[in-house]
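User: Please fill in residues for this 297-position structure.
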């Protein structure tokens, strides 16, 4: 990645970090341990890819960053809640996340569950605050929140997690694997793109192109995750290596083989970039598709 791209990525990332820091503060109250647990996972130094995508779409479409930022940060809270729950012993049973002991290892399983619940609820509060504060067109912001919550719920991320759990210790077809990751990983990445597009009131042609882009980068992200679990360095990725194999889960690597998975990754990135070819100022989003494939964690 070029220095210009890294600088722009970090600019978006810093906006997210500052907004979250100001919003999620530890109160001097008996339940402060809950907020400490929320912040422990939330401020652990993630890539912030999803909110970065939202802010980049906003800039590309000439939108107002202040309108999109609360929704972008809400998405990051939702993503973090999903990671906390995903790491629990009853799910993937992972000891490390982002290079640190997972939430349940530090705060206990019960507090980790509550911290995840609280992050999800807080994300909803943030989006509702934005809807209530909008006097001119609250329906647009409500529609953006609807996109995000649908991607998060029983027809999105949670559905994908259900397929994942029910597929343990059993081979799955390529079709089921694709559906699982379209929902579990891809839905929230796609929503990061489309919620910002909705807030910016883009035209139908651009919406369709961004939908295609979002779907393909979601696929690319998951394939790369599977490859990193298979061949990545745990010291770099910040996660336990080989956990999918240990949990006997089907991945793009186990179903297709590493070589075919790499080919699919390249194909997904090409499709994502192709989707942007008729959109002006889409250079950052195109480079982000490449970044997803090149990342080491």
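Assistant: Residues filled in for all 297 positions:
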């Amino acid at each position: 990645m070029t220095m210009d791209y890294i600088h722009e990525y970090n600019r978006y990332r810093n906006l997210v970090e500052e907004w979250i820091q100001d919003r999620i503060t530890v109160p001097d109250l008996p339940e402060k341990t809950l907020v400490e647990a929320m912040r422990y996972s939330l401020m652990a130094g993630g890539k912030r890819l999803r909110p970065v995508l939202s802010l980049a779409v906003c800039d590309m479409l000439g939108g107002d960053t202040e309108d999109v930022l609360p929704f972008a940060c809400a998405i990051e809270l939702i993503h973090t809640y999903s990671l906390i729950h995903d790491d629990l012993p009853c799910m993937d049973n992972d000891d490390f996340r982002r290079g640190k002991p997972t939430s349940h290892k530090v705060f206990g399983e019960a507090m980790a569950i509550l911290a995840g619940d609280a992050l999800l609820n807080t994300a909803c509060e943030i989006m509702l605050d934005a809807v209530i504060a909008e006097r001119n067109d609250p329906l647009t912001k409500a529609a953006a929140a609807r996109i995000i919550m649908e991607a998060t719920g029983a027809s999105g991320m949670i559905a994908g997690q259900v397929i994942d759990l029910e597929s343990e210790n059993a081979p799955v077809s390529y079709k089921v694997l694709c559906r699982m990751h379209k929902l579990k990983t891809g839905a929230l990445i796609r929503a990061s793109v489309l919620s910002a597009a909705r807030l910016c009131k883009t035209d139908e042609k651009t919406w369709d192109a961004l939908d295609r882009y979002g779907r393909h980068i979601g696929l690319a992200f998951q394939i790369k995750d599977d490859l990193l679990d298979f061949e990545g360095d745990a010291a770099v990725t910040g996660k336990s290596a080989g956990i999918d194999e240990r949990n006997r889960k089907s991945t793009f690597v186990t179903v297709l083989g590493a070589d075919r998975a790499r080919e699919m990754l390249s194909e997904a990135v090409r499709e994502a970039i192709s989707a942007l070819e008729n959109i002006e100022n889409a250079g950052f989003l195109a480079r982000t598709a490449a970044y997803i494939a090149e990342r080491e964690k």
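For context: Residues 224 and 293 are 6 Å apart (CA to CA).
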